[in-house]
Each structure stands twice: as structure tokens, then as C-alpha cells.
Design brief:
protease; Peptidase_S8/S53_dom_sf; Immunoglobulin-like; nine-stranded mixed sheet; serine-type endopeptidase activity; alpha+beta
Length: 528
């Protein structure tokens, strides 16, 4: 059978079980709703409940009559039910609560996957069952998975387009395929243009999707965020073994093991998987959009990542913090109101260099929301909110043109400033390895919320000490079995820490732009 007919599957290899009848909200059963979790939904609910926001559940459908879901179903205001006409001219007949793209002519969920996802996002707070993360948000039903839980990439692309065209601000995609279909990429791009945030599950294979991609989570887009799962642990939360990961593709994580939510039979059940994690993040995004309706999809994504709680292990996804994210969104909304009437400006106050490291101080005012930074015409960073200063690591010591562009909430350029940085070429760094010294050349590029592209070459030995791949965020380094030290003319020196281990494969953590830390990643070695 053709790939497009069987490519799309719900992310559901993990078992589901019936849950006992519970009253909402039940912190015992709904562990993600407990104030003790990183998510801290009770704290976030004091600020927002998701009112005025619509989330599209692009999945296997929704049990429309479920008592916890029926109150929050989206109803198409321009469609007349039952007249067998396309009243609103959107190409779909009688799409009252959404659309079925599977050919089975029903929005009702025959599989149960979409119903469970929908309950996590927006189950009503009605004194029964469970409560959703954004319990006042509206749910749009977009059915792309049939009664067997499978569909096609064409259905997925059409589903994304339908949701974006009919008013969804957030799209939840708890599904996966190995097929990288250009039609799906184009639909994601159209959603970005429509200012729609897409939240994707990472998958349940326990693999690094930076290296072995799955789709749509591996589509690079600034309006798409991939989500890993977390599970309850003795010391808080942990990433379960089944969850896919990858520091580039999957930057955040949310509760995904033992999640109680709505079931297709009208009751409740417990499921596990990244399919259950993604709707937690979609719900948090709805809480944020409710208190700050002017934020773009890119800004919502940026705030989710910026306020995620980072675990101690480098390269692991950050745990989504609902309270912190909603507070940040509300703060951005207040800041936008306070800047009305001010002239939009962006200024480069200073650009100080130490070796290849440039530290740039900037200010902004008026309606400037973000600052896009270009070096010699190439975009190298976008500073979200109040973030400054910016640290860049230059590829060479020639003069460089720095351009700061002030962007409003819609991403439109409304101000700019220029500066000249760099110039003098100092001597290259040196490395002492096994008593002999060889010349080294460090080239690094710092990208906001992305890995450093770093190459460190041992010229004298004729071999690469380590290569960091900017596209995948992986350092593939030659093994070092003895101490190594490194220094540069600016005076930065690195000596391996006692007890450090042999370097094989390393993934980067949060951006660490100074040369000493770059050398630490590349030159980590065993202590004899």
C-alpha cells in the first residue's frame, strides 16, 4: 500500500487501563494537577483558566457527548447543522464541531486516543471526573486517525490547514510518522504564517530523534515545539525510558506516565506516552494565550522554553512550568500595554570583544517586543522579551557588521541599529597534548536556544579533536585518554577536572558561549 495511506499513527504503544470514578480535580489520581509538581497547575489557575482560546485536537476524534468535554466543544458559528450545506464556504459541509478527514463521516472517537488527549487539554471543571489544564478553553475536533488509529500524511496536512484557517490558536499533534512529507511541512509553514502554535509528541521509542527523525515533531519551525514525557519519581519527576528525546527536536517535557483523562465510553482511563505529555503543554500554552492574547506563536514557544525548569543532566528537556510560563506571558502583556504611544527604538549600547567572544549590550523601547540580531547579514539570534546582553563567538577576527532589528508582537520590523565589531587578529589558541603543543583553531557560532556550531582541529596531529554538528547538536569527538589543557591569548585556560571521564559522544546543554566552556566540551578527557 502507498506510504501516504498508512504513514500516520497515533503515538500509542503503551497500555491503557480503566480509572476509578473520581471527582475533579483529584490530585491523587491526576498527579500532574498537584501543586507539588514542576507544572504547578493550581498556581497557574489563579492567573488563567484558558478562556477565549481554541485548541485543535488533530487526532482520532473526540467523544462529543462526554460530560467532561461537551461543555467545551467549539461550535462553528457560521455553519447551520443538518442542512447538508457548506454554509461558511470553507470547503466542508456541516463542520459544526470540527471536521472528519478519514472518510468515516463521524467526529466521534472510535479509538479513544483523541478523547484522552482532549480531556487533558480542556476537560471542564464541573465537579465530576477530571479537570483539564485549560478548563475554560474550547476544543476543535479534527479527525485524521480512523477507527484503527491510523491515517495519512495528506489527512494530517489537511487537518493542520483546517485548524489554522478556522480559528485555532494552538494545534495538538499526538501522532507520528516516519514519512517526511513536503505537504505536512507546507501546512506547518502556513500555520506559522497564521500565528498558530503547534505542539507535537516526541514518540515512545526511547530514541534520539535528533539523530533518527520522526515527523511532524522533527520539522524545524519556530512555531512548533516537541514534547517528551515525565513520570513521578521519588525526588520529583524523571524522563521515563520509553520517551523519545533530543536536545534540538524535543526541548521540553511534561507529565506523560499514568495520566488519567476522559475515555471514549464516557468514563475515564489511565494512559501513558508522549501523546499524554503534549496536551499538557498545549493546555499551558492556552493558559498563556488567554492572559496575553497579543503574543505570537513564536513568543509563546519562546516563553515555554525560557521558563522550563532544567534538570541537572545537560541535554535533557526542560520540565514545563505552567505557573512560570503564565506569569511571564502576563508580564509581557502588561509591558505591551505600558509601551503604547512610545516611539519604538532599539539601541546597541556596547559591543565588547575578548578574543573571539563579543558581548553586546542593547536596549529597546516602545512596541519593540523582540530583537533579531544579524551578523554580516546572517541571523544569529533572536532576543525574547527583556533578554540582554547577548554573547556571540565570531568565526574569525575580521571586522563584522552587527545589525539589531526591533520586532513588534507580530514579528514586523519597526526599528533597527547597527554597529561594527571585531577587527584585530590575535594569535591562534594552543593546545598541549601529551607534552607536545600543536596549533588549534576554534570556530563557534552561538544561536539563541540552539547549540553551538563548534569545530576544534588539532592542526599538528592532522585529526579532528571534535566536531559539533549545528544541525543535530551532537559532538562526535576523538577519544582522549590523558589530561589535556588549553588556553588562548585572552587568558582563558581550561584544565580537565579531576575524575572527568573519557569523551565519546556528548550533547550540549544550555548555551555556554565563552571559549573556556567551549573547550571544556571539546577537550574533556580522562584523568590518569
Amino acid at each position: 500500500m502507498a506510504r501516504a495511506l498508512v504513514a500516520l499513527l497515533a503515538v500509542l504503544p503503551l497500555a491503557a487501563s480503566a480509572a476509578p470514578a473520581i471527582a475533579d480535580p483529584s490530585p491523587v489520581e491526576q498527579w500532574a494537577a498537584s501543586p507539588q509538581t514542576v507544572l504547578d497547575l493550581p498556581g497557574a489557575w489563579k492567573l488563567s483558566q484558558g478562556a477565549g482560546v481554541m485548541v485543535a485536537v488533530v487526532d482520532s476524534g473526540i467523544r462529543l457527548s462526554h460530560p467532561d468535554l461537551a461543555p467545551n466543544l467549539w461550535t462553528n458559528p457560521t455553519e447551520i447543522p443538518g442542512n447538508d450545506k457548506d454554509d461558511d464556504g470553507n470547503g466542508y459541509v456541516d463542520d459544526i464541531h470540527g471536521v472528519d478527514l478519514t472518510g468515516e463521516h463521524s467526529l466521534n472517537d472510535q479509538d479513544g486516543h483523541g478523547t484522552h488527549v482532549a480531556g487533558t487539554i480542556a476537560a471542564a471543571q464541573n465537579g465530576q471526573g477530571v479537570v483539564g489544564v485549560a478548563y475554560k478553553a474550547k476544543l476543535m475536533t479534527v479527525r485524521v486517525l480512523d477507527s484503527r488509529g491510523s491515517g495519512s500524511t495528506k489527512m494530517l496536512a489537511d487537518g493542520i490547514r483546517y485548524a489554522a484557517a478556522n480559528g485555532a490558536q494552538i494545534i495538538n499533534l499526538s501522532l507520528e510518522t516516519t514519512a517526511d512529507d513536503p505537504k505536512v511541512r507546507a501546512a506547518v509553514k502556513e500555520a506559522a504564517a497564521a500565528n498558530v502554535l503547534i505542539v507535537c509528541s516526541a514518540g515512545n521509542m526511547g530514541r534520539n530523534v535528533d539523530r533518527r527523525p520522526l515527523y511532524p515533531v522533527s520539522i524545524p519551525s519556530d512555531n512548533l515545539v516537541g514534547v517528551a514525557a515525565t513520570a513521578p519519581a521519588d525526588d520529583g519527576e524523571a524522563i521515563p525510558q520509553f520517551s523519545n528525546f533530543g536536545p534540538l527536536t524535543v526541548p521540553v517535557a511534561a507529565p506523560g506516565e499514568g495520566v488519567v483523562s476522559t475515555a471514549k465510553d464516557g468514563g475515564y482511563e489511565t494512559r501513558s506516552g508522549t501523546s499524554m505529555a503534549a496536551p499538557h503543554v498545549s493546555g499551558v500554552a492556552a493558559l498563556m494565550a488567554s492572559v496575553a492574547p497579543g503574543l505570537s506563536a513564536q513568543q509563546l514557544r519562546g516563553l515555554l522554553l525560557e521558563h522550563a525548569v532544567r534538570p541537572p543532566t545537560p541535554g535533557k528537556p526542560g520540565y514545563v512550568d505552567a505557573l512560570g510560563s503564565v506569569q511571564a506571558a502576563a508580564q509581557d502583556a502588561r509591558a505591551a500595554i505600558s509601551t503604547l504611544g512610545q516611539t519604538p527604538t532599539v539601541r546597541i549600547l556596547s559591543a565588547k570583544r575578548r578574543g573571539r567572544v563579543i558581548r553586546v549590550q542593547m536596549t529597546k523601547s516602545g512596541a519593540v517586543s523582540d530583537v533579531r540580531v544579524r551578523l554580516d547579514g546572517e541571523e544569529v539570534s533572536v532576543l525574547r522579551g527583556k533578554r540582554s546582553p547577548l554573547t556571540l563567538v565570531l568565526r574569525n577576527f575580521k571586522g563584522h557588521q552587527l545589525l539589531a532589528e526591533g520586532l513588534d508582537a507580530s514579528g514586523r520590523r519597526i526599528a533597527s541599529a547597527k554597529a561594527r565589531v571585531g577587527g584585530t587578529s590575535p594569535a591562534p589558541a594552543t593546545i598541549a597534548l601529551s607534552g607536545s603543543t600543536v596549533a588549534g583553531a576554534a570556530v563557534a557560532e552561538v544561536l539563541d536556544a540552539r547549540p553551538h556550531a563548534t569545530r576544534f582541529t588539532l592542526v599538528g596531529g592532522g585529526t579532528d579533536m571534535g566536531i559539533a554538528d549545528a544541525a543535530r547538536g551532537i559532538v562526535d569527538a576523538g577519544l582522549v585518554d590523558r589530561p589535556l589543557t588549553a588556553s588562548d591569548p585572552a587568558g582563558l585556560t581550561f584544565t580537565p577536572l579531576a575524575g572527568s571521564t573519557t569523551l565519546g559522544f556528548v550533547t550540549r546543554g544550555a548555551p555556554q558561549p565563552d571559549l573556556a566552556r567551549i573547550l571544556r566540551w571539546i577537550a574533556a578527557s580522562a584523568t590518569p
